[in-house]
Every structure is written in C-alpha cells, then in structure tokens.
Design a protein that fits this description.
Elements: H1 3-16, H2 33-43, E1 47-49, H3 53-66, E2 71-73, E3 96-100, E4 103-105, E5 111-114, H4 121-124, E6 127-132, E7 137-138, H5 141-147, E8 156-159, E9 164-166, E10 172-174, E11 181-186
Parallel strand pairs: 1-11, 2-3, 3-6, 4-7, 6-11
Antiparallel strand pairs: 4-5, 5-8, 9-10
C-alpha cells in the first residue's frame, strides 16, 4: 500500500471512530450581561442601543428613510422603504439592512444570525442593523454553541462588528469586505 493510501485509510478510520468531545467546565459570569455585551460591541466598533426597543429601532429607520437611505427590513413590524427582493442581485444598492439576531454573546459581542432571506444580505449592505431580545444574551461562546443549530443547507453565522481588515502595514480598514457599521438594538 502506498503512503498516500495509508494516510487516506487512517483518515477514513478516524472519521468512523466516535470520539467524544471533552467536557469543558467554564464558569460563566452572568452578572450584567447587557453591560458586558455593550463593552464587547464597543471593542469591535459596533454600537448598542439598549433603550426604547423596537419603537426606537423604527424611529431610527424612519430617520434614515428621511435622509433618502435605502432600507430593507427583515423584521416583522419594522418597515423600511424597500421590500425584500426576489434575487440577491437587487440588494446591491441597499444602504441599511435590518435583520433579526437570534442570540448574543456577552464575552465577544458576537450575534448569531440564522438564515437571512438572502444569504448575502448581511454582507452586501453598506450598514447593518441587528435587533436582539435582551433575554437572548448569554455569557460566553460555550453557552452559545449549545443553543445554536443548523439543518443541512441552512446558513447561520456569528457577526461581531462591522467588516474589518488590515494590510501588511497594519492600516485598519472598516467596511472593505462587508458592512461599514453595525448597530444593535435590544428589545
């Protein structure tokens, strides 16, 4: 048997073996999850709006529309000025996308977003607004991964702040590969 075949055989056998993941006992800091979440969002250049709930979000959307911004909302009860298009290509000129978040993580400001109507929506808009229930914030990623699930073919992702990248000279560029800003509204 060739060395290539030996390696592939070992990999195949390893995939068949049922290896249990080790238990990791992490003590969660559940004190002031909203405060921790806010601090984490600030550290990744995102903004938390924790007062006013969905009414505050609708007011912000109305203000954006008055400024002639193109706003699409995927949240029931929040009305933008653009309807959900039939194809993702029609999202190219969206200034703001308003999307529901399913779960927030206090330790890093990440928000789990499950299956937006078009997979490209959180990435193609110029600015992203996520709405999240205060009751859906957990202390850490260990708690978060126990609560998220995907079916085959579904899209789910953690979003933490606007798009950021740095070149060799370490010059930070925000929005190069996605949204230029992230605002999170708690309700």
């Amino acid at each position: 048997m060739s060395s290539k075949q030996t390696i592939l055989s070992a990999l195949s056998q390893s995939a068949l073996d049922n290896h249990a993941m080790p238990e990791i006992d992490v003590v969660a800091n559940n004190d002031d999850l909203v405060g921790q979440f806010n601090a984490s969002l600030q550290s990744v250049a995102a903004t938390l709006h924790s007062d006013g709930g969905l009414a505050s979000l609708q007011q912000a959307v109305d203000d954006l529309i008055k400024q002639n911004m193109q706003v699409i909302s995927l949240i029931e009860g929040i009305k933008g000025n653009r309807s959900v298009p039939t194809t993702a290509h029609l999202l190219a000129d969206i200034d703001y996308a308003v999307i529901p978040g399913d779960l927030g993580v206090a330790e890093n400001g990440a928000i789990w977003v499950n299956q937006p109507s078009h997979r490209v929506t959180p990435f193609i808009c110029e600015n992203l607004i996520l709405a999240l229930s205060k009751d859906n914030i957990v202390a850490n990623m260990h708690q978060a991964v126990k609560q998220v699930s995907l079916q085959q073919g579904d899209l789910g992702l953690f979003i933490s702040g606007p798009s950021k990248t740095a070149d060799i000279e370490q010059a930070l560029v925000v929005g190069a590969h996605g949204a230029c800003s992230l605002n999170v509204y708690l309700y």
